[in-house]
Design brief:
Elements lengths: L6 E3 L1 H30 L8 H26 E3 L13 E7 L2 E7 L11 E3 L4 H6 L7 E5 L5 E11 L3
Parallel strand pairs: 1-2, 4-5
Antiparallel strand pairs: 3-4, 3-7, 6-7
Helix pairs in contact: 1-2
Length: 161
Amino acid sequence: MSDTSVTWLTQDAFDRLTAELDQLSVEGRQEIAKKIEAAREEGDLKENGGYHAAKEEQGKIEARIRVLTQLLRTANVGNAPESHGVVESGMVVTASIQGDKSVFLVGNREMAGNSDLDVYSEGSPLGNAIIGLKIGDTKTYTAPNGKGITVEIVDVKTYQP
């Protein structure tokens, strides 16, 4: 998946992620700056575990801010696309994978929120293999471990959060 790909999000997921971005961009950055400054005041930075931990936390916060900014910039917000029996982003898919039934959402993990559904992105090996397939279609794709995995699409429904 490219960095410019569009991701479908529910309005609830968009609002939740926007609030998280706002919190991290303001309060999160202020808190970590205070931690770094307090750790600096302890002296020698080479052997200062608190300073290094705070800098690592700062890196994680900044990475999350970049991910959220990109995701929200390219998000298609609204209702999930209507199901026409074709696998696409925003669909809950029931599939037989190597003979085992599996139900999962195709799309961005962020769209599922607190749902118990497994989520496979369109760019994952499974997601990439099944995008565009219709109910009844079967396809074999190569897993990251090099093994061929056969998947049959049993059902496709619009995701309802």
